[in-house]
Every structure is written in structure tokens, then in C-alpha cells.
Amino acid sequence: QVQLAESGGGLVQAGDSLRLSCAASGRISSIATVAWFRQAPGKEREFVGSIRAIGSSTYYADSVKGRFTISRDDAVNTVYLQMNNLKPDDTAVYYCAVKLTVRSEYNYWGQGTQVTVSS
What we know:
The protein is mostly beta strands. It has no helices and 11 strands. The chain has strands spanning 2-7, 10-13, 18-26, 33-39, 46-52, 58-60, 68-73, 78-83, 92-99, 108-109, 113-118. Strands 2, 4, 5, 6, 9, 10 and 11 form a 7-stranded mixed beta sheet that branches. A 4-stranded antiparallel beta sheet has the order 1-3-8-7, with no helix packed on it.
């Protein structure tokens, strides 16, 4: 089992920055990939980006590439999503999720944190 807890959401203005955190506990050594997803009202959940446990390779959706950065701090078992130059379209509930093998589904999810960007 892996437990995830997101934090750092809030209300910001367009152009501002925000950093989300995803703290993991439990079978941390089994995690292969940590990802961020988001879901806006009335829309399907979408992939934002991910980071692999081995090698720390990162991948991003085109919509956030160049503005968002995923990083990790193994000392505190936390993955971060640094969001710069935020836009109103970035408004959503942001979730972190993990999978235990590279090819598996995302098995564990956090409760989400709300990000609202005003114009």
C-alpha cells in the first residue's frame, strides 16, 4: 500500500506561480513512477506530468511543457509540481498518483488539491 497526500493548492492570479507537494508513505521503495493529473469542472481527468523513480526522467503534457516542472526530494519522500506562469485554464483539482511498475496502471491516488487561477 502507498498513501499519498497533496498540498499547496490555492487561489492565485494569472501569471503567478504555485508549488504543489505530494508526500508519500507506505511501500515507497516499490514506487516506479509518480505522476500529476488534473481535473477541471466538467472535463475529464488529464495527465500533467510524471517522474520516474529510477533516473528521475520527467515527462509533461504539451499544455504545461515549459511552465511546469516536476522534482523530487527523497529525503522527505515528496514529489513537487512547480507551476509557473499560471493561466485560468490551469484551474483544476490536481492529483498525484503512483504506479508500482512502469507498465502498470496508476494504482494509488491522493485526495487532490484545488488550484484556482483568476484572470
